Amino acid sequence: MLTPTLLLQAYKLMATAKAMCDTYDANRQVCKYVHSTSRGHEAIQLATGMQLSACDWVSPYYRDDSIMLSVGFTPYELMLQLLAKKDDPFSGGRSYYCHPSSRDEDRPFIIHQSSATGMQAIPTTGLAQGIRFLEKYASEKIGRTAEGQLPIVVCSLGDGSVTEGEVSEALQFAVLKQLPVVYLVQDNQWSISASSDEVRNMNAFDYAQGFKGLKRLQCDGSDFVRSYETMGEAIAYARMERKPVLVHAKVPLLGHHTSGVRKEFYRTREDLLKHGLYDPLPKLRLLLTDVGVPEHEVSAAETEALELVTEAFKKAQIAQDPHAASVADHVFAPTPVKEEKGQRSPKNAEKILMVDAALHAVEEIMEEYPEAILYGQDVGGRLGGVFREAATLADKFGDHRVFNTAIQEAYIVGSTAGLSAVGMKPIVEVQFADYIYPGFNQLVTELSKSCYLSNGKFPVQMVLRVPIGAYGGGGPYHSGSIESTLLTIKGIKVVYPSNAADMKGLMKAAFLDPNPVIMLEHKGLYWSKVPGTEDARTTEPDKDYVLPLGKANTVLAADSNALKKGETVCVITYGMGVYWAKTVAAQYPGQVEIIDLRTLYPLDEEAVFAAATRHGKVLVLTEEQQNNSFSEALALRITNQCYHFLDARVEVMGAMDLPAVPINTVLEAMMLPTPAKLAERIDKLLQY
After folding, report:
1. Is cis: bond before 602, omega within 30 of 0?
2. Which residues form the Transketolase-like pyrimidine-binding domain (predicted)?
3. Of 257, 275, 478, 522, which is the active-site residue?
């Protein structure tokens, strides 16, 4: 309920936000890192944060320092991030101002926030997805307000970001599943230097009308009372009805877009004056007088705010910078899987296909971990995956744990950040490697950076299953290899098993790893139907079997006598390359050693360099197009590390450098490596 006391509290926070903005602008040499402030947006932001509970989740965007103040963060804490100091509570000096993350139990939780506009909509909707699951099926694991009410999620956005396609994916999922999320859209009529009439045909309120089941509200976001009432209605609706709502708040932009893109660069005097008429600070000050708050109390609040900011800024300036040695901390959270455990080949166990090994691994995981869920395109009960890699799982565990999604690769990938944050353990699937690219934005911007930029607070535990590779006429959009593209992303792990036992052990390790892990699963090996891949079928490991990531395997060892004579070559490969190499090795008994990498990152460099040193002749084999590939980079690393032990330059063999894999099988064979082509290369190496 709005009272004079609450209004005065809001005014003090608003005066604090203004003092912070003015201080930063007056000290541009000190505030050298790019930043934005909430100047003009204070009323709607304060009205939002002041009504949230500690059990709630909020995703502020880069202009939301007033939200941060209203949920309990101090100017000093915010300034530590502004100046990139060691004790920055959000990122440890790694990220921009007002890019928070917090697990503090006495204020709303905040997952990692990136700069990419609108991208937070998907991870934040993933939070609401996880909360909805927990409240239905594991209510004892979910926090509540002091009154015993369930938590909600608030996603703050600028209106310009609503034109992003990923915002649409988030809204679609929220209304489909009826999630308890409030989308707060702050509309200041500008997207950097582009005005609203240049870049959109409608505002967010009108746009939201197309999402059936999404409640819509709007208000003057410069008016604190109207903002408080509107956000109160929105929060109560999401909290009690457990349904999504969008609030469109029109606000002035009184500050700069950022400290680096200043308002005088692109805005006219008339525009600035027009926005100045809606300054929320004098509006609220006048209201305080109207409701009988004495002038001296208002002035005292202003003085206290300025003194607080001034003292905090002085203190923040002399705070320590991060230690240089900390730069590589928190890229990954430590994994519990350090060594191989369980029985890889139990007595009397049957041989199984790779596709069944993956299916059984996920089934055993879901039996043991009720917080594990599986979703993606066509993995639900009717089909169980286009390769039947999820067959029967929906029947066994229910549609709430195994379900289909729309064709929304970005949502499939990015929602796992929110789910992981609330304690869920998502396993998700993109139907073909060729179709992963719409999900790359979330993979790069949100998931890969979350642990590092949150200073270790929010690693993202997820497994992303990706069927990959050519398998005989699959065509240009169902046969591609993407590992080199994935491996340019830092902060994720990439696994590529080549047989059933490895598939099961690595799937278990990937699931237990608290970081994002991508399982590349070769379609041509799933069923062992490609000639020469029969050995992809192996004895099924037991339920407890787990294989650590980053451990290569010697699939075939060379003969010791041939090794002593220098008559051997080492083939370093993975996936289908293992079977091409095994086919060729039969033509050179004892002379070919095959190392299966099994995990591309982390990479078992020790095993690779040791093998290269032993043999002196090395060929790195890949199914990918060769130029600029992971395999070429690996060959260089081998050369640099093992130069004095090499008898010949490290060879690389991959596919031809074509834009796609042709559908005609004759053309496909011409493009890809084959045993015949590989035999020619090995023969030349052996002649050195």
Report:
1. yes
2. 352-528
3. 478
